[in-house]
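Researcher: Please predict.
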Amino acid sequence: MSATTAPHSAAQTALTRRSHRRWTYYILPVYTALVIIYLCLPIFVTILFGFNNTKGKYNTKFQGFTLKWYRDLFAIPGLTSALINTITIAIMATLVSVVLGSMLGLAMGRYSFRGKGATGLTLFAQIATPELVLGTSLLSMFLMIGMARGYWTILIAHVMFCIPFVAVTVQARVAGLNHSLEEASLDLGATPWVTFRKITLPMIMPGVVSGGLLALALSIDDYVTTSFNNGSTETFPLWVFGSSRMGIPPQVNVMGTLIFAFGVVIVVANVLVARKKKV
């Protein structure tokens, strides 16, 4: 009888454990979902109020669904020019920082040279430094050399704070490379340029793309450093902050939605390409 009871007790204990495990299994997924919803809530609000049929200048209460703000997206000249400035500065800052940051990251990850430690410390210090410090430092420099603040000073500032992010990302990628492939290419008669173009660059490309996307997002999003060095030039974040006292028009929500959608498309495309290469 005890032999029959023992398996029954063991089965009952196992069933109880499975039931307990089944309940606790959902704790982490539910917590993760709640955190994601919390982080995405401002984005959902932005998307929603891009369709708001507002009657006044304050777009704070949903009054009905409409698509007219997508049709009249460029109806406000100041907002349109600010968006153009933001996009063009972000693209140029990304291109320049990707080139310079990738070369710096490649050198930091592959070679040992005098001053490497100080260079790495400078890169991380630049990332850790508050934007307020960078903005005031650049402002002092531009005033000292007598350079008028405007479009180009914004571009210089954006390139400066984007380079470290690209360099660190590429350096991390280079540290995990198999350098025997490059050595084999050189042994087979390929020139250093051909080896870099056909072997090294494809291997570090995920790091380059990741650093470039990060630089693009940082440039589009920046407000603090830009506000110190913009002069009379307005970017999208500066225009939105300035209009917040008078009432933010729905076109701002529409533009924010489109920028967000563009970023999502780029990220999804990058993930799909990476998965295709693995397969």
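Model: The first helix runs from residue 2 to 24.
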